Here is the input.
Amino acid sequence: MAALSAYRSMWADLVAVSAAPDPEAKRLGDHATGGALKLMQFGVEKLEREKAVLKGDPRLDPAVLTASGTRVTVKDCVDGRNWLAYTRDGKLRDDVPGSHFQADATVERKDGAWKVSHFYMHEAGSC
Here is the structure.
């Protein structure tokens, strides 16, 4: 399904940009728009301010909740145990382990392209 592909691609974009934080990275807008894009830019700005990076890869397990012709809602239980915060010199930033967390997204098709328009990451341990 194209909407799930866009959702997974949005995550790939976020992972890549979080490894070398640049809130202006054009890649963030490749598969996200609106509130989803703003949330990712905010998170990357925070990493930049804190002189931190995220390393590793979260594991995704998205499921479609609803689907219409141009709108799909997705619920995911993201395994973030391998996606951790580090200082820029490569040291683990804290002793907080990664965890599973719920992610909700709305993916919409506009002008022939699917993009995530709404994105929310719940607290650690939420799934």
The chain has a mean pLDDT of 94. The longest strand covers residues 100-110. The CA atoms of residues 26 and 92 lie 27 Å apart. The chain has two helices and six strands.
